[in-house]
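Box 3.1 — From sequence to structure: DNA-binding CsgD family transcriptional regulator
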Amino acid sequence: MSAVTSQSLKKSSASLLEVPWPLLRAVEALADAPLSQIAERLRDATFPYVRSSALVIFTEDCTGRPQKKAGDEEIIARVSIAELDALRATLSEEEPWFGEAEIAGPLRPVLALKHAPSQALLVLTDPQPFGQEDEAGLDLVRYLWGIAARRIREKVADAPPSYLLESRAASAERVRVTAELTDLHSTTLETLLAALHSSALDDAAVRAAVTDLTAKALVRLRTLSDRTNDLVKEPVATAFERLREDLRPLTRFSGIEVEFIEPPRNGRDLPGEVAHAARAIVRGLLLAMIEQPEVSRVRTQWDCDGENLLINVRDDGRGALAPDAPNIIRLDRRVQALAGHLQIEVMPNWGADVFVTLPLDPPAPLAGDVAGWNLGGRELEVLQHLAAGQRNRTIASTLGISENTVKFHVRNLFRKLDVGSRTEAIALAHSHGLR
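Predicted structure (token representation):
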């Protein structure tokens, strides 16, 4: 081997020894990190250059889990989307910012960087002070953050269907909980106004009632706020009990007697959006009914046939509830948004009877000639049993539902098939091949 070659090898070996292997390994770990671990990997990678008590990523690419966090549990457990969004709005494009910001409650020192293409935000809390001599470390943090932000976008784009379904479900749940908070505010304010306008209470009683209602409302608001990121299904009995609790203060001051007919306790769990919509619909119907003259009693009943939540609300007024009233039209739109159906039977001098059907699952497409009837799955089953000549009691026993539920479905079948009797419904079913 020549002297020149030997000398070149020595220089090459020396150069290899100078390669920053810890940094390269950190980059490799960051590039391979699953979404659930990317905050921890990024914190491990940045810690040698800028030490921090916690690292928080806020990205709208991951709608299901917009926050990714690592570090001090006291910080990562309390930091909120509102705080991160407010901080992000103050930052310029990709320019590191060092200062104080409200994170996890109090003002604390932070280092914040924004990724321009995705508008994702990186926050390092309580970073060690750095001066001019630490610019190289800050540049490395910025470089590593760029890798992490790009990898988040790539991983979300390549995510399996199960992740996308979970993410979209979480987004829908946040919207639902926000709507529930709005409805709770509305109920509380309406109840407070009812108490203040009540002629049956003196000033001391009104103050005591309003104080009690406000305290309970605040507790419930905080409870709902804590559920924003949860995906929930409510047992039908629990959802109905929440309805009863929601309406109790309002009915206390209205002078209207409300009778609650509970659903079977072993009924199928309700999807969160169905449970929330059902409570809001019943509350809206109750408010519309008590505005009528001579209404002294309202009955609300829930039932579940395994595929639908069945709601019935009836008053004892003079039948003055107008199906085309703006508040009823708004409720009907809410029902239709869930592929449900609202029907009102107004009987002059005998009150109003409202029936609402809310499917628990998206409606399955129907095959054959009956698709044009727009029947739900349970309605089609009832029609098939009708076509076979079975009576309501037999149908109820076969399907494991109550006879009243069968009558409910038969009434809907008459409307959808545009017939006036069981004989006509059976003849029409036979003509379309149902036996």
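Summary of the box: The longest strand covers residues 107-115.
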